[in-house]
Amino acid sequence: MKRRVRSQLGGTVLFLLITAVVIGGMTWATVSTLRLARTNVKEQHHAAVYKTLLQMDSYVGGILNREVERPCSDYRGFHTKRPVIRSRVGNWESDAGLVELPSDILEYGPRHDWIELYYQLANGVLTSPQIENEGDDWPTIPLEVNAQAIRRARASWEKLESVLPKSIASRRQTLGATGSALVDASATTNRKPQAENQSQLSKKPVGEVRNSVVQDYMQRAQRLRDTQSRHKTPPACEEPAVAVRNFPGMVKHAPSPLASHARDVEVNIECGEFQQPSWLTVPGSASDKLLFQRECHVDATVIYQGFVGDWPLLRDELLNQTQDELLSELSTIFDEPVVSGVDLVSLESGQPTHITENEAALSWLPVKLSVPFSETRLATVAWRSVRGVLLASWGAAICVLVVAGWGVRSLILLTERRMQFAYAVTHELRTPLTTLQLYTDMLSAGLVPEASKQDYLLTLNRESARLSGLVEGVLEYSRLENQKVRLNPVNTDAQSVLRVLRENLEARCKEAGVQAVTQNKADTDQAMCIDVSIVNQIAGIVIHNACRHARGSEGSQVLINLVSKSGRLDLDVIDSGPGIDRSDARKIFKPFRRGRGADAAAQGGIGLGLALARDWASLLHGRLELVARHHSEMGGAHFRLTIPTTVRS
Fold first, then answer.
1. Euclidean distance between CA atoms 6 and 108, whole angstroms
2. Burial of 537 (0-12, 13-18, 19+ CB in 10 A)
3. Under a CB-based contact definition with an 8 Å cutoff, are residues 151 and 117 in contact?
4. CATH class of 486-644
5. What does the alpha-carbon distance between residue 580 and residue 584 come to, in Å, rounded to a whole number?
6. Where are the alpha helices (DSSP H) in 189-267?
7. Parallel, antiparallel, or unpaired for β 557-565 and 515-520?
8. What is residue 362's DSSP assignment?
9. What is the torsion angle, in degrees rounded to the nearest 10, for the CA atoms of residue 284, residue 287, residue 288 and residue 292?
10. Count of Cβ atoms closer than 10 Å to residue 54 Cβ
């Protein structure tokens, strides 16, 4: 018993270890797969956002590249120039006199509707090439082509004339007024924040979306700065007379009386790049405006040039160019329609600080791109992308556990069966072998009286037969297990089968002292094709068990009933014994098992009888079953053998 408990405990521990390994491995694989799927979805989301940011930055960058190419003189409505006259005859050149030319801004207006007003701040004087300023001695030219833009610029000038100088001065202090205009402000004033961001990036896990957003921002900003540098107007030189007219207040290089020509002294003019715009709050305006500005050097004089943009118009233009494509990509990523939620929101600063994973800053506008994004949706999309693989994997893991459990259980049962077999066989063989050895020793030693020798010989014969039956039962069970038993069906009828069974029944019952009762409810003339020897062996085992349990009681008897119907044959065996306990009913057909409720007199054999009988019944394509543990009339067990009337070999 202890050995059996240890075997079951060891098998249980082994199965639990296998379960822990499989479940642990599958849990780790599931978590890793979901994490990878979430990362993939984030990367797809970021790729779509990054593509949109590139489109928006390219649009703004293209505008700034064209504006940085604009000559410094275009920020005056009319500017002075001394053209060169070339002669086709004689191939000579000659300088013409000073002429006044209209600015492209005045003549053609802004290239985009969202640009409201161009401005220039020189020596504390704010002017605009689109506005006629008092004191200007330039000619007045009616320009019908640009009339609407000029009217809009004049309306803006009325609101901005008082606030622009203060905003330019404030921006100058913020970005550093004394620094060179050729160095981008984001590389000077924000060097420390960028270094801190890079330090934080090195400490955070690789693949985090926020890190990618910050890195992309810096890369895009650097690329736009590089493109502006390539498009920037190269430095120029002008004679003082021209420079003084184009830039009022220029007195440093006025013509000297000793100079042979006014152009012996030149004025160096160099303009820088456009910096990231700042927000401009205009009284009476529904929304803030964007202030784009660059710094130019006319010798030692610093002037500021730029333009004011209408943010709502620019935002609508950027979204109209990119929103539909972005929403389409997001719908593909999330596998559900995404029709809204994309927006551009203003930032206090253009740096990508304090933004979430569904936001990303544009590199050359102080705004962020807000995109639909949620952790719940992310988890749902990630699960949908891998659920097939995960469910299949978990199904395979469960199958592995079922197979492992079945294997461990089979191993335990096999171990128990071997132990039971060894115990039952050794126990049952010991009695006849002991008897054989004792009696043969007494007979050979001449210790048995002559009158008792016959009894001794009969006992030896009975024990030999018992020993032979035990060995034959084990061999037969082994043949059944190895499927080496072959059927031998013969043609017969119900009456012949009952006659053979009656002879077997009466002999066994007479030997056990039990009354035998037979009933034939089958059609005696019904033809059958069955293996009579196997049917007789099955019936013999069941009848033998019934006789052993029924003997010893008053009026003990065994009833055998034969019934044939619907192409099958039913053989019922009922005894008048004590019946079968509920706990024994579940295991009486298992090999090497004997009921614990049986009395000591009935405890014989090694527990293979009913197991052999059931296997033989299956071989005949039938079944042997316990119909009732306690028969309603006779009180004992009721067994039924059901086989087809025609059996094929």
1. 99
2. middle
3. no
4. alpha beta
5. 6
6. 191-203, 209-231, 240-246
7. parallel
8. -
9. -110
10. 16
Write down how long the chain is. 649
- Token reading at 348: 């206090």
The domain segmentation of the chain, as residue ranges, is 46-320, 486-644
| 3-class DSSP assignment, residue 573 | strand
113-164 pLDDT, tens digit each: 899 899 998 888 888 888 865 445 555 555 555 677 778 888 888 888 888 8
DSSP state of 184: -
Tokens of 638: 């009721």
**Residue 593 one-letter amino acid:** R
Checking DSSP bridges between strand 527-530 and strand 343-346, what pairing results, if any? unpaired
Neighbours of 331 (CB within 10 A): 14
End-to-end CA separation in angstroms for the chain = 42
Distance CA 247, CA 226 (A): 29
The pair of structure tokens assigned to 288 is 């803030």
Q: What is each CA distance from 329 to 41, 147, 256, 260, 326, in whole angstroms?
A: 12, 42, 68, 70, 5
Residue 102, beta-bridge partner list: 78
* Chain-centroid distance, C-alpha 215: 27
φ and ψ at 353, to 5 degrees?
Answer: -110, 145
Q: Which residue has the tokens 């206090």?
A: 348
Measured distance CA(287)–CA(577) in Å, rounded: 104
Give the Cα separation of 360 and 46 in Å (integer).
Answer: 9
Give the pLDDT confidence of 605-647 residue by residue, as tens digits: 666 778 878 888 888 888 888 888 888 888 888 888 888 877 7
